[in-house]
Amino acid sequence: MRYIIIGAGAIGGTIGARLAEAGREVVLVARGAHYAAMKADGLRFQVSDGEHVHRLPVVEGPDALGDLRPDDVLVLTVKTQDCEAALDTWGAAPVAGGGTAAERLPVVCAQNGVESKWIALRRFRRVYGVAVWMPATFVEPGVVSAPGAPLTGILHLGRHPHGVDDTARRIAADLETARFAAPVVADVARWQYAKLLGNLANAINALSWPVAGEEARRLYARVRAEGESVLRAAGIPYASAQELQETHGDRVRWAGGGAGSSWQSLTRGTGTIEADYLNGEIVLLGRLHGVATPLNELLQRLATTFARERRPAGSLPEAELLRLAGEAVAAAGDRDVTFGQGDQAAC
Fold first, then answer.
1. Percentage helix, strand, coil, to 5, in the chain?
2. What is the reported pLDDT for 336?
3. Are 14 and 153 in contact (CB under 8 A)?
4. Where does residue 50 fall: left (phi above 0), alpha (psi -120 to 50 degrees), or beta otherwise?
5. DSSP string covering 124-185
6. ∠ CA(118), CA(156), CA(38), 5° rounding?
7. Which residue of 95, 158, 186, 278 is surrounded by the most CB atoms within 10 Å?
8. Under 8 Å between Cβ of 154 and 252
């Protein structure tokens, strides 16, 4: 199989580099300065044992490849807000022997959130979802960092909307040889919703990194509690903390933390951010099922405003974020929860 990595940034670049190291055939898809840097000098891949340079085929779109091959696997790693354009472009690409990519090829959605696989299923017949647990950073054009060790990441993989098949098993086997754990699961959405709950902190980190102290932890706990309440009301299952611990253990370790993918979007000044598909997913479900989500609404609104106005990552003081959070829950009618007032706060 040949892997075409659509969006070779932090996640895509890491998956592509590791698969190439394991001897798999890989094509990277990128644009702009990142495309130019990799085309000229290769992908500089920074990992725990140093920097490796991968000189792999790099394209901006399917036209550069001619007819796609029947054994191609499309790995979609762009942010969810960029999915539709990428899927429309690649879905229409012809495949040798007849038909289009959307008709004949598998697309693997390796992204945060839960929406991209539904967007893909409207266009592609064969869709696979991945719950991505992997520390990775887009450092600068042409450079990606993935400090996880001994494994680079954990990628739960399954067919969407449910089930497993031989294609999923073959992809997982390739990932397992490339320093990933890749459990094949029939209920991949359950793992993606568990990841979604963790990703609700992305907006907090993007707005006010570094966040520290008990009150910031309380804020995230409350944001997550809204998410859990919404998933219960919607009847949506998600993997438990015990299951995550049993699966992950200490197989992906790295020194220090990171501010996450939303921080990277603000830092790069892309003008967009994935908050609509993280906190916004909780807001949507809350509105559908009658559950108040004032903190997730606040974070969605602030993050999208910061992205649209290209405000710097981390430029909202933590005290201001806590003040706004307190106002949001008060406006929603919850007078028992405050933020920014020390021991008066409660969760």
1. 45, 20, 35
2. 65
3. yes
4. left
5. -SEEEEEEEE---EEEETTEEE---EESSEEEEEEEESS---HHHHHHHHHHHTTTEE--B-
6. 80
7. 278
8. yes
Q: What is the structure's pLDDT at 255?
A: 74
How many CA atoms, within 13 angstroms, populate the side-chain half-sphere of residue 173? 7
Strand order in the sheet with 137-140: 50-54, 43-47, 143-145, 137-140
Confidence tier at 345 by pLDDT (50, 70, 90): very low
Could you tell me the pLDDT band of residue 347, with boundaries at 50, 70 and 90? very low
Do 208 and 303 contact (CB within 8 A), yes or no?
no
Q: Kindly state the average pLDDT of the residues 30-46.
A: 97
Per-residue tokens: 161? 């909307």
- Kindly state the DSSP code that residue 95 receives in the 8-state scheme: B
Residue 222 identity: R
Mean local confidence (pLDDT), 310-321: 95
DSSP state of 37: H
What is the SS3 assignment for 117?
helix
Burial class (CB in 10 A: 0-12, 13-18, 19+), 158: buried
- Which of the two residues, 123 and 346, has the higher pLDDT score? 123
Identify whether the C-beta of residue 343 lies closer than 8 Å to the C-beta of residue 236.
Answer: no
Question: CA-CA distance, 126 to 128, in Å (whole number)?
Answer: 7
Count Cβ atoms within 10 A of the Cβ of residue 333 and give its class: 0-12 exposed, 13-18 middle, 19 or more buried. Answer: exposed
Residue written as token pair 């005290």: 319
Structure tokens at 138: 């887009």
Which residue is it, tokens 């495949």?
95
What is the per-residue DSSP string for 143-160?
EEE---EESSEEEEEEEE
Contact 283, 297 (CB under 8 A): yes
Task: Enter the tokens of residue 208.
Answer: 């006010």
Residue 258 confidence class, pLDDT cut points 50, 70, 90: low
Q: What is the token pair recorded at 145?
A: 């960092």
Q: How far apart are CA 121 and CA 101, in angstroms?
A: 13
Say what the pLDDT of residue 333 is: 87
